[in-house]
Amino acid sequence: MKKIRVRYADDKGHTSEEVFETRSAEEMRRAFIARGYYILSEQAVEDSFIDKIRAAFKASSGASVKELNEFTKLIRTLLKSGMPVTDAIEVLLDGAEDTPMNSALRQIHADIGEGVSLSRAMGRHPDVFPDIYIKTVVAGEKAGALENILKRLSEYFTNSIAIRRKVIAALIYPAILLTVSSLAVIYMVVAVVPEFASLFKSLDIPLPMITSILLTTSEFLGEYFWLIFSVVVLMLASLVAFARKPEGRDKIDTFKLKLPLIKELEKNFAFSQFSRTMATMIAGGIPILESLHVVIDSLENRNIAARFSVLPDLLEKGMGFGKALKTIPGTPQIMVRVVNVGEESGNLGEMLENLADHYDDEITELTDTITALIEPILFLGMALVVGTLVVAMLYPVLTAASKIN
């Protein structure tokens, strides 16, 4: 993320100056235009080393998918009961906590009171409301079916949350096992092994290589523990900061697509996300070409997003959606066939929804497989490590005892 000091003016001539965080200057300019502001000057701001460390561990300032889903469900219920948008937002803000979502809603409420449409008011907060949300709300306002569109968005977010939980569930349990196992081994090496060092010296016997290596490692970790811990923290912070940069995220996403099992999980998640987002936007009455720009930008794996980025150009040249997909490297045949059938039958939205369900089922099977494989592998690895430590510690003692006998 870049920091840019911006001096800007609104349509009433009032000027302000603030520092904004953005992925690129172009993205920031688009956001200002969407809000109706005029940029007077820009100046890049360089972070200090401490600021970079803090930024690496700073949480996102936007709204989560869960928050968007809860907001969508609640405001849809209020609108369905016949309540005006301004009154509905006011009800939601009554006694609400000070979160990025609620701060944005307060400004949206004020903007609507000045005659700004709901979609345009939301568009002034791109860090809270993603493009798919804004575009779909615009379509709902134009069609006079905002309540139905919000229902569609709620279903989209509900499915997205469900599939994210499946992916996280497949990875978080092995991660916890690995972390606990590693901490247990580090504790044994740093705290338990030194207790044996004095015993081995008193025995005055030659030590096997594995025991010598273990004692040397234990002594090194004990003496430089905090230095090593600081280095590890700095490395993690650097990795997180690198992952937040566009080029870093691209490399990490590319690396994920080379890992066994993980690559299939990444692909299925991306194809499910692509299909379901397209289905939601098409059902909202948004043209395919306009939908593609939003969908491609919303894909989490940037490597796969880069592959699909040529689709809008191919469609502008007159190529059909299905034929254009077929030219993309790595596109599954089932996706091409489903899109072709959807175009021919005029039921593309429903076909893409079914395709997303198919990939969700694939993700469920993969997550079950990953969990079933990783758990015994981790237990076996832990048993080998602990067994090696025990042998390295007890072998010299047993050897000395046999000599004494």
Describe, in plain words, how this protein is organized in 3D:
The chain is mostly helical and 405 residues long. It folds into three domains: 2-46; 65-158, Up-down Bundle (Receptor-associated Protein); 171-405, Type II secretion system (T2SS), domain F (Receptor-associated Protein, Up-down Bundle), CATH 1.20.81.30. The protein has helices at residues 25-35, 49-57, 65-80, 85-93, 100-113, 118-123, 131-143, 146-203, 209-223, 225-244, 246-256, 262-283, 288-298, 302-308, 311-316, 321-326, 333-345, 348-404; strands at residues 2-9, 15-22, 38-45. The chain has a three-stranded antiparallel β-sheet with strand order 2-1-3, covered by helices on one side. A hairpin with a 5-residue loop joins strand 1 and strand 2.
Strand and helix layout:
Layout: E1 2-9, E2 15-22, H1 25-35, E3 38-45, H2 49-57, H3 65-80, H4 85-93, H5 100-113, H6 118-123, H7 131-143, H8 146-203, H9 209-223, H10 225-244, H11 246-256, H12 262-283, H13 288-298, H14 302-308, H15 311-316, H16 321-326, H17 333-345, H18 348-404
